[in-house]
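# step 3/5: fold
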Amino acid sequence: MTTVVRVTVVPGDAPEGILLLALGGELDYTNAERLRHDLHEAVGPEPRDLVVDLTELSFCDSSGLQVLLGVRELVQARGRRIALANPHQRLKRIFHLTGLAEAFGVQPTVTRAVEILTSQTPL
């Protein structure tokens, strides 16, 4: 595995109250702590819904799933929601087998993830 994983704030016209992030690279035990730090920094203190685009995330092991679960917990503790978008087929299968697809609100596209979050009644 490579030790590179990137977190990028996606600029654009996300509705107010939604933060769009993109993950890229390979996420494993060698870089999970770094990603945890980068995600917490990107999310910041402001309570917002979070959409994470997984299009460019080519690999994720159990330590990476733990990082994503931690970010989900942080977002939910603030009364907000998280949705993951466009995971690769292997990652999508892992989410479904573990029951995390529903917990994360896995969606096929970023657009659909944003639609889902904006259509729900605020917590």
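# step 4/5: annotate
The radius of gyration is 13 Å.
# step 5/5: archive (pending)
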